[in-house]
Design brief:
By secondary structure, the chain is an alpha+beta fold. It contains 13 helices and 13 strands. The structure holds a DNA duplex.
Amino acid sequence: MVLFLDLDYFFAQVEEVEKPEYRDRPLVVCVYSGRTESSGVVSSANYVARRYGVKAGMPIRLAMGKLPSDSVYLPVRMEHYLKVSRDVMDIARKYSAKMRVESVDEAVLDVTEVVDGSFDKAREHAAKLKTEILERKSLKCSVGVAPNRVLAKMAAEAAKPDGLKVVNPEEVGVFLAGQPVEALPGVGHKTKSLLEDLGVRTVADLGRLDIDVLENVFGPKKARYVYLASRGLFDEPVQERGAAKQVSRILTLKRNTRSLDEVEHALAKALTQVLNRLSSLRMAATRLGIIVITSEIKTFTKQVEIRPGSSYDELMRLLRSMLQQVLSENPSLMLRRLGVRMSGLLSLTGQSTLTAWSEHES
DNA sequence: TCAATGCACGC
DNA sequence: CCCTTTTGCATTGA
């Protein structure tokens, strides 16, 4: 049995809690790209802003067009939200030792043993968790309880905002049947559209499809997933998140360009940030990659094998070379955003010196 | 086995 | 379309 915890409109709610005077006004937390005064996207919006049709992922300028003039626009304070998130996760951890932090605002807990397999006890357990988060951090959240992770996430979604929904085994069929396919975790825009081509709009429609049909369209893994999930049967144990496998940073350029000189600074900045992150994780990388996003929002990537511990100058040299390649292979592309990724990460364990360290794959 | 791409997902 | 950012997983093609 799984309990899924989802903090409501998290970033915007954190801002509301700290600035109560904003609480009844439309509030949006924005990722400013720095291109122009108001370019960027909405990261999180409170429910007042949502009533005007504003939601996460929307360009800030579009949101500004929809919202009244007394609305509040705040820049993301990621480090701060991470701190608040850690506090909440520490509370949640007391409700089951089997827990996985899914993201900054989500966690999954296997509560089977804690509640003795009883869905009634699980409801009380979840209610206590909600109360404790509200009392200690003044934050509202939504919680779903169900026989597996997929159903629990959907239950939490259905409970929003500030809700608690238990879907016990007898209710699974009814709970799933009426939902649109995109309510299934893992079904986004593309998958929804492909399913529509198959005449599938609801989870119930999906539940009538043969797995062979799904395999032809989606490949074996995803086919198996949607096949089982649509029947409420996709189940996997709740496992703690492992060590990071990659670290990346992407920056938006002031203006589109093809000039290496003009983007050198951005590349250096992204690399420095990635290296700092790696260092704080006490990890090293065996691959270095560049991420190019064009004026047409198309993405190109390149990567090369590196010696872990390569110098900054060496890494910059490789990045320039990869960028040069992308540009020459695509003579007409204009750079809009530029990023650096390091992967094939190794945990640096023990006391390392410049010349000798011990490491193992993570 | 690796490089590149695509999809999803969070806010 | 006015368009951020980060990570993980899967697929595909060499």
